[in-house]
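STRUCTURE REQUEST FORM
Protein name: Cytochrome D1 domain-containing protein
Source organism: Azospirillum brasilense
Requested output: structure tokens
Priority: standard
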Amino acid sequence: MTDSRSPLRRWLAGTALAVLMSWFPAGAAELRGTGDLGIVVERAAGRVMVVENSTRQRLAAVEGLGDLSHASAVFSRDARYAYVFGRDGGLSKVDLLTATVVKRVQQAGNSIGGAISEDGRLVAVANYEPGGVRVFDADTLDPVADIPAEYGPPAAEGASRPRSKVVGLEDAPGNRFVFSLYDAGEIWIADLSTRSSPVVRKYTGIGRQPYDALVTPDGRHYIAGLFGEDGLAVLDLWNPDRGVRRMLDGYGRGEQPLPVYKMPHLEGWGFADGKVFLPAIGRHEVLVVDAATWREVGRIPVAGQPVFVMARPDGRQIWVNFALPDNHLVQVLDVPSLAVVSTLTPGKGVLHLEFTPRGEQVWVSVRDLDTVKVYDTGSLKEVGTLPADKPSGIFFTSRAHRIGL
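Status: completed
Returned output:
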């Protein structure tokens, strides 16, 4: 078959292909998209696996990322780069197409996750040591802003104010980052519309020991869980002048809480059918809250202390994993009936779950079996496995286009 295009059109097509190819560094095997890629953290080895969820396969490994205990990641807007937050304060930019570390900075001594701004130009890291938030240019990882989490009354001359551990760092519309101060019991909003001069607004007295937080899928509400007391703190980001309100105050009143072996995690979204599904601290329950009124509308008894309570993308199911001694289980909740419909036993050490972008499958990291298991969310059957060295967090690039993830 002959090419019927004019010589000019053939030349333009060839030039465009050459330019496109030139965007990919030497070593990139083929032109491909990144929408079905992701990473699996191999915490003990200090590396991540680059995976493809369409074919359920490992594509490559990226080494040299430091201490990846409790590591998490966010993605660039083009879903090509993963920003990996290590527990040792390391921030690494990983190219998923070439499976290389573009740059790594040691920005603090102890960190607990981060976020990427609405415009994709800034990456922020929540730090325990020194307590505060540091913000970096997403392209170069050059420092942009440093926000120390100092709290309390002014210090005496020659002394310094205490600094709090920062938790629950989330992105919010308007190039804002919202986070909580664990030691101070405060929520701060950092507006980085002017990137080098962040404007910080502080809310004090929001409750004792906020331990984690989430931003609702529409970006409107920031919800911080409280470890030091029963309840959660809610900040309406559309109406920040209204201040912080409480919900589920005293939800465990009259009950003896159980020892907490692992802090629950709020980020990951448990929003479905106009309700918020939340892990109860020290209790074998998932709390159900009406997202319009923030009032409790139900409790679902579950097999253990919930850690992640995550909604399938279509909101039809909630998947839950548990702290010790029940960390070999995963339960599936039916949203309309608010009931457990299945209990799965992937194996000891279930640490994380991640849905494929449309939710037809869920990947489950099973640390003690050195395995990632893949389940069909319709049949609830296991449909695949991937070997992995002590896997923990699983993060797919579909997060790149969602608020608060």
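Reviewer notes: The mean pLDDT is 90. The longest strand covers residues 122-129.
Form closed.
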